[in-house]
């Protein structure tokens, strides 16, 4: 398939906001795509050249792209900048400028997807001295070679501004549409993706072998597994009612980590390649030759291995299995008092520089609570008790990695004692786990139930919201340029973000400054397509879906202007819409934490908000 054909699909996708329509367009695209190209195509759909969990980023900013366009079209950077300002988007700008230049009969090539992919891959992977110049050169050549529409997307891709307006969910659903013509295979495809969240891999498997290609996907060391998530309840009796006698662990207040570790001897790989004649010799040669892999992923699948050299060292010392995928919570502690510190302080370890010094200043422990894979065997389908037993057996005693001890909660009293104990130790509450529950990759199920400290307040628990835009500030806040933030939650059914609140209070000046620094990088000219926002709440500046924050609030109320859970019906005249069921809103929301470990779709869901709303009434 040519990149031009792909670009016409991109433009069709860009033109619609309807999820069903997008799914159908995508399934048509997959049908037309070549089986050797579909993997690459799927990365490009995400505006990337590798799966999300691989660290490769384009590292390209507006300024450089402006330079590349100017060079490609032999015009002044000022001309590009002017068109950029008029269009508000460099993609549209280059398209317009290319149309003009084509009138001068500049010839273009009809490049295939894989040809464009190769160049973009080089752009993303060139690093070090002089790499900016190389990137600009490569982009410039591509822009010169392609037609105007293709140039629109080639420019947007490295800038991370594809504007197609859907998440992986829709990309996955479209596979079901391609095979079955409906969404009947959606769950099965999603299950495979949850264990191997690599769209390119899933796509090429399906294209080559149909559903058979993804039936037996098992964990692989080095490829993160989408993490299981917990539901919430607000009392010990509710927990017992829901899952009966259960395991109860502390809910540590830190950063979730999925550790991948392998220290296999090279023997196997070498032997495979050796002929039977010299097998013995090969064995001898490679004896003692270890191949070590250690990777650590955060909850949004970011590779954060470099952040924790101390944990890396501890893994080598304390983990006895040859190959393992385990999960735990990293919690920092005060080295003088030994007291555990809140999440925000643990996050100070997330930095690019002075990593080793910070490791001494802010030491951490990893409380290991899950085993997903060990020595060639998947533990995803094993019961909690079996997973924990194996986990315990592969951790040697030490200072850094600690087995997350559970108690068995038979009565409300057992659970509450553990809860009080947890709070006294400065943790967040407890996690109750179903004894025969399996590990549900990527799913918020009832095998894990969280019961948090904040639940004693009127509104149980905090909520994670996506920051969608902001209004300009007034008074003191004008110094910062930001007044209130429009925030929202995730509507899984629609694959959209819907609003619940405007937040202006609860921020210290320092938080405000930090906030602004972050949001400035996310500004976009138009409302992102995946946002469903009432006109009355239109902010001055839109932000692309990226920044998640944790907010506390007094109560969930109903509101006609917020779109979370809101249902509209056609008005009597048939020309407009009336509110049939109002949406959910947060009363007195206030910012508590940045949640850099969560991606946009990890924000609290509308379903959860609806549950919390219902619970409030039961309490009253
Ligand atoms: P929340 O972020 O409030 O949805 O709570 C879920 C998070 O609690 C998980 O992603 C973990 O980071 C954290 N957590 C802390 N302790 C545990 C534990 N014992 N088991 C599972 N998750 C835990």
Automatic annotation (TrEMBL):
Keywords: ATP-binding, Cell cycle, Cell division, DNA damage, DNA recombination, DNA repair, DNA replication, Ligase, Magnesium, Metal-binding, Nucleotide-binding. It is an enzyme of class 6 (ligase). The keyword Acyltransferase does not apply. It catalyses: ATP + (deoxyribonucleotide)n-3'-hydroxyl + 5'-phospho-(deoxyribonucleotide)m = (deoxyribonucleotide)n+m + AMP + diphosphate. GO terms for biological process: cell division; DNA biosynthetic process; DNA recombination; DNA repair; lagging strand elongation. InterPro entries: ATP-dep_DNA_ligase (IPR050191), DNA_ligae_ATP-dep_bac/arc (IPR022865), DNA_ligase_ATP-dep (IPR000977), DNA_ligase_ATP-dep_C (IPR012309), DNA_ligase_ATP-dep_cent (IPR012310), DNA_ligase_ATP-dep_CS (IPR016059), DNA_ligase_ATP-dep_N (IPR012308), DNA_ligase_N_sf (IPR036599). Its cofactor is Mg(2+). One of its GO terms (molecular function) is DNA binding. This is Probable DNA ligase. The gene is lig.
